[in-house]
Amino acid sequence: MYTCCEETRIASLPVKGVDLTDATGAFITLDAYLTPGGDFDANAFTIEYRLNGGAWKSPLSTPPYATMVHDSTWWSGLVLPVPLSDLQQGDNTLEFTTENGNKGHPAVISNIDLVISTSSSAPTHAAALTPPPAATSATTRTPSPASTAGPAAGCQLQMADQPANVAFCDTFDQPMGIGNRSGDLNGVIWGVSRTSGNVNQGQNVINGWSRTELVSCTGSTQVAAPDDIQICNGQVRQAVNDGGNVTLLAMYPKQPFDFAGRTGTVAFDVSNDSGGTHSAWPEFWMTDLPVPAPFVFSGGALRSIPRHGFGIRLGAVTVPGQGHNLGPNCPVDDNWRWTVDSVVVIRDYAMEEVNLYGTGAAGLRLTPKGCVIASNGPNGGLNHVEFRVAQNQIDVYASDAGTTEPLKQIASITNAGLTFTRGLIWLNDAHYNANKGAIQQGQHTFAWDNVAFDGPFTYRDYGYDALDAKELNGYDTNNLGQYSFPPQAVSWNVLGLPKPGTITADVVRVLFNFHHYDAPAVLNVTVNGNAHSVPWPYPDRDGWTWRTFAVEIPITDLVEGTDVVTIGADTFIATSNVNIVFVNGVFH
User: Fold this and answer.
1) E strand segments, 471-529
2) Burial readout 480-505 (b: 16 or more C-beta within 10 A, e: otherwise)
3) What phi and psi, each to the nearest 5 degrees, are found at residue 41?
């Protein structure tokens, strides 16, 4: 369907069966195809909608449209916040129109969904939106061809206390990118960050990120960030080319997982074909705040750590016939097998890290309990993995690749001493010069699916990204970050923020990664000219590493549309992965 020209709108679309019980917010997601030229004015163009014959709404500022036609004339995702007062219980109607578009090549919109957030469950999607008379046929999506890549039974929480209260579930049924750093993931629901050891001031390399080969469902293709995350056949495929460096690609749902006073359960499927921790391996993290790219490497030589959190590396691997190397309960057979390699717990920025059978200074211990058959790649079987998380113990379970059961306990982490009870979960793809590992995985693809955790339901944050710098350096990689030298700061444009007064939040934060040689004494952050200076927060002053950080700001610093964030310090730093987050954001 499409719309063009002044005073022209598409027919009313039925939105059937809307349930507003316990609703806390709502938004419309859609894909839009915009063509520049002719009468198109990126600074005046708008997509407007109205519900149930009410007032026309234009909730997005113009910069997202300008970005869409600047980057390409291909499809881009948009998210339109919806006041709950515009909706009614049951059946609703929806209309769209545009202003200041290209009359010769009108805007096209498709894949329209109304998403309702509730206080008691994960967000629910209203019936697919299609214009009559095709509503019946279009609202029933034809299933994708059966995948051979592993579990297809949807979100499972086998180890959760029963009956399981599912607070979050994403089965990645279709691409839902909105044009931010999250690729094909729904950028309203998911955030993505990328860091690389490829930082060299003298060579003008600033978080250098290489193009990579991504193994999709139909073959391999060369991609660059953020297109290194794609969805096909109901799975996430994400790829990294480490270029001989340490790299991290981190994905997180913007909804906290709460395990206060209980043992909570987190689950996902992954094609774990790791060659070990000198190759590519998956990690599971939890952080108290949504600080980007949480990661520890080489005993803390690289320490992009939250104030409170933990990380579990799924990278202990053995070749066929050597299962006993992974523990007493690991079979010796003809299969590659894997288990938990190591764990790190962070308490007020202090790290405690242990490997298999290790015991840390504060008593943290990782005990192997078993192992599972490894995947043979993204087009092979996936392992189903579940984590039972409590304040002082974390138990890890997994299935053999291509199955969802039986789940086998593969590790127990005791004396965890976690110093938080609510946080964000992260799915990480970590690399260390992976062409030197047991398996050459310098360019490598993981498949992920069926991410879930149990309740209680908490809330959802609303986050807005600054796009990666994406400046081609002289070493055939893209600089995702920017340098700043004192007293200067670098500027980042955070796109698409809502109009002040239309959203409230418990707190607003600017989040970012920064890399330093010498540790600065102070970090200087401004938002639309409003200055915030933060003293060095970490107990160590080790250099040559990435850090991850959050700065709290007043909501009154923000403006509609593009918000300008500048970041600098009293020493040289590089910055990347900048975003603004409304914690427990609610649209009005």
Assistant:
1) 471-472, 478-479, 482-484, 490-497, 503-504, 507-516, 522-527
2) bbbbbeeeebbebebbbbbeeeebeb
3) -125, 105
CB 419, CB 308: distance < 8 Å: yes
Residues 6+ apart with CB under 8 A from 195: 207, 247, 248, 292, 293, 295, 304, 513, 515, 546, 576, 577
Cis geometry, peptide bond prior to residue 282 (ω within 30 degrees of 0)? no
Written as six digits, the tokens of 530 are 């409003």
Q: Which of 393, 452, 372 is nearest to 157 (CA)?
A: 452
Distance CA 81, CA 579 (A): 18
Q: Is-contact 36 45, C-beta < 8 A? A: no
Residue whose C-alpha is closest to residue 326's, from 355, 364, 296: 355
Please give the Cα distance from 581 to 23 (Å, whole number): 21
- SS3 state of residue 63: helix
Q: Is 189 helix (H, G, I), strand (E, B) or coil?
A: coil
- Give residue-wise pLDDT tens across range 373-399: 999 999 999 999 999 999 999 999 999
Residue 273, beta-bridge partner list: none
Better pLDDT: 6 or 268: 268
CA atoms within 13 A on the CB side of 237: 25
For residues 129, 133, 135 and 138, what is the CA-based torsion angle, rounded to 10 degrees?
Answer: -100
Residue with structure tokens 């920017």?
A: 482
Q: What percent of the chain has pLDDT over 90?
A: 73
Residue pointed to by tokens 């990666």: 468
2-138 and 462-587 agree in CATH topology: yes
Cβ atoms of 465 and 180 closer than 8 Å: yes
Measured CA angle at 81 (ends 188, 89), to 5 deg: 110
Which range has the worst mean pLDDT, 143-152, 266-275, 351-360? 143-152
Return the amino acid letter for 419. T
What CATH code would you report for 462-587?
Answer: 2.60.120.1200
Total residues belonging to the chain: 588
Secondary-structure percent of the chain, ordered helix, strand, coil, rounded to 5: 5, 45, 50
Helix (H, G, I), strand (E, B) or coil at 30: strand
- Closest by alpha carbon to 346, among 310, 297, 313, 299? 310
Name the pairing type of β-strands 482-484 and 573-583: antiparallel
- With the C-alpha atoms ordered 74, 71, 563, 548, is the resulting torsion angle positive or negative? positive
CA–CA separation, 373 and 326 (whole Å): 12
Domains of the chain, by residue range, sit at: 2-138, 166-260+271-353+374-380+421-454, 462-587
The pTM (predicted TM-score) of the whole model is 0.79
pLDDT tens digit sequence for 117-143: 765 444 444 333 333 222 222 222 122
CATH number of 2-138: 2.60.120.1200
Helix or strand holding residue 304 (H, E): strand 302-304
**C-alpha to C-alpha distance for 279 and 354, rounded to whole angstroms:** 19
Rg, C-alpha atoms of the chain: 23
